[in-house]
Automatic annotation (TrEMBL):
This is histidine kinase. The lineage of its organism: Bacteria, Pseudomonadati, Pseudomonadota, Alphaproteobacteria, Hyphomicrobiales. It comes from the Bacteria. GO terms for molecular function: kinase activity. It comes from Bradyrhizobium guangdongense. Its EC number is 2.7.13.3. Residues 572-682 form the Response regulatory domain. Keywords: ATP-binding, Kinase, Nucleotide-binding, Phosphoprotein, Transferase, Two-component regulatory system. It is an enzyme of class 2 (transferase). Residues 331-551 form the Histidine kinase domain.
Amino acid sequence: MGFLSDGGELGAMMRTLDWSGSPLGSPHQWSQALKTTVGMLLAAQAQIVLFWGSDYIALYNDAYAPGIGANHPRALGRPAIENWGELWDDLEPLLSGVRKTRKTFAAKDRPFYVERHGYGETSYWDVSYSAVPDDDGSVGGVLCIVSETTERVLGETQLRASEARYRELNATLEQRVAERAAERHLLATIVETTDGQIQALDLDYRWLAINASCSDAYQRIYGKRPRVGDSLQEFLADRPEHLAAATAIWSRALAGESFTTIEELGDIRFDRRVYEMKFEALRTPNGTRIGAFLTGMDVTDRLEEQARLAKAEEALRQAQKMEAMGQLTGGVAHDFNNLLTPIVGLLDLFQRKGIGGEREHRLIAGAAQAAERAKTLVQRLLAFARRQPLQPVPVNIGRLVADMGELISSTTGPQIQVTVDTPDGLPEAMADPNQIEMAILNLSVNARDAMPDGGKLRISAKARTVERAHGSDLVPGAYVCISVADTGNGMDEDTLAHAVEPFFSTKGIGQGTGLGLSMVHGLASQLGGALTIRSAVGAGTTVELWLPVSHAAAGAIDAAPQAKLRPLHTGTALLVDDEPLVRMSTAEMLSELGYRVVEAGSAEDALQRVKDGLRPDLLITDHLMPGMSGTDLGLALRSQYPEIQILVVSGYANNEGITPDLSRLTKPFRSDELAASLANLAKAG
């Protein structure tokens, strides 16, 4: 195999190659024409590949091997289709054409799609394909002398593109310069006139750019304006804390971080404002970081408005919740009063008649006491629902609070130091004195329970003026503010949020109804005032009861009459109520008072009895009943019989729907309370 001896690396490879798997067989058996051609191509410096036989077995030299990349050395001695498969549809017609015609095929910069490095690419070649005769004169193979021109072709293509681009740029340079100048002027105008704050700092914290809005912002919060070239560190050198905060933010941006933050900035001696700021790294066209810039917006007013809106929404939700609870408790109180009326009336009857022995007397007295407690509970429910019967008059709050000092001291015990502070000349408030006394007592008991180990309780009253919107929705005007402050445990935010809700209590089971604060809250609202509470855990609680100032002279605080009064005259009483038990107990009371009682279960039934000839001297009617109300019934009978006496009885404690000139009595009631109402009615008549 001497023809392979001077073939370089490929020659050595051919000498050692196992040719048993190749269609060519061992080189010893090759034809003389094939040996001569292979010996010639191995010694050549040009890139040469020989495709021999009908299967186009590939044989090539050292110069050609790099051009087929990863296909070498497996392509050596193998059919071309195995390693030139991606371009075989292109290459095979060329090779078969040379074999058939014996004419040389030549081309310059001929493109071929190849996959020689693990990926597809288009390569370019100068090629010359010639037929090689075998020993018998037939075409034995095709000798391909090639030269890859890919790098040159691509370079020339890029050069032509660059030249075309250059010619285009030169042709439009003047226009582009004008357009760019106009664009920069427009952008500069926008940046300078926008309300947003825009500024840029270099890596040494010196201003590269700053617009007018940003300068104005610095003037507002620091009293001075930075300029391009100034140092941020020098600008805030006299305010170390502000400088530390500013450099902490800017250092992140100058390090290349992009982020958005909301910060409150400014010297309190000038102004404090909240800004939303977006920071970005500032880079040259080639990507070199040279600083950072921010775009900011003053969001102080927006955040304040959002806070006000959130507060208003929370107040609305709370008002809706309290209104719903008020309607519920008012309805429950009405039904409960209807249930209590016969209980209170019959127990009162038993006590007055002395029914039973000593044991029975004790049992009846205990039941009556429980009924009174239930009555008080209903009154508190009605107070929360703002439906309790009030008799507001001008009240000297200073005297009322001072007179309660001893009672409160005895109620709270010796461990509590009670201080009462009421200045002279305090204006009178429009209020129900009995209810105000109960409210102060309730607040004092709450304060006592919040100081199990003792403490200080201060009760004071001051004249206050509300000139603009108040936190408790008080309308502008003059008020008397009663304050009950303790040094007790205090309440956390969650407890404070539920403090005035009915039945909410932090006390143990059986130690409170949870209606104290809710009663005072309802009382204040019903009187046109408000209840405010300030508290913190471990710092005590201050409750303020705001009452509107009265413009009339204060009257005396009279106790409710206790004497048993009897009506001035009796006669026929028409008793109307849709509750049979209420009618039963009330009828018994009226009979004891000397009346002849005619009962009716509805207003329509009562009118029918009158139409049938009944002429009552007295009408006692429930207010709210199915069908016609008691008030409408009373007005209808009064229009026919002006001399008739009318008393409206209601389980609801408000006056809604009841004509002011009709006397009224609230359920439940005892016989003496009914007698007093009838006596006052007869006296007025």
